[in-house]
Amino acid sequence: MSQKSSAGRIGEDIAALFLTLKGYQILRRNLRTRTSEIDIVARGAGCLVFVEVKLRGRGGLSGPLECVDVRKRARISRGALSFLQSYPEDLYRMVRIDVVSVSWSREELVVQHIENAFPAEGLSVW
To answer: Is residue 122 part of a domain?
Structure first.
C-alpha cells in the first residue's frame, strides 16, 4: 500500500468515526461503481448521505470544497445515482452530498463536516 493510500485510509477512518459520533450510521465505505468511487455512504439526519473525504495538511492553501472540482462532483453524483438505482423501492427520499475535511498539524487534528456541500446533479430525489 502506498504512503498516499494509507494516509487516505487513515483520513477516511477518522471521518467515519467522526460521523458515527455525530449519530450517522455508516452503510458503505469505498463504494465503487463503473465510473466513480464514493468514500462513505451513511444514513443520518433523515437522509442518505454520500461523503467525499479530503485529507489535508494544515499548510494547504485551498479549502476542502476547492479540492472537489467540477469533474469530481460529477463523478460523485454519478456514483450516488448508480447506488440509488440499485434500490428501486425508493428507500431514500432525501439525499445529500457532504464533504468531510480532515487536516492536521503537530498540535491538532481538525475535522470539518460540510453538509450539502454541492447539489447532486441528476438526482431527482434531492
So the answer is: no
> Is the residue at 20 inside a domain?
yes
pLDDT tens series, the chain, 126 aa: 555 567 778 899 999 999 999 999 999 999 988 878 899 999 988 889 999 998 876 555 555 556 678 888 888 988 888 888 876 555 667 889 999 999 887 788 889 999 998 886 666 544
Flag whether 119 is in a domain.
no
The parent domain of residue 49 ranges over 3-114
**What is the number of domains present in the chain?**
1
Residue 45 domain-assigned?
yes
CA 107, 16, 60: angle at the middle one, nearest 5? 40
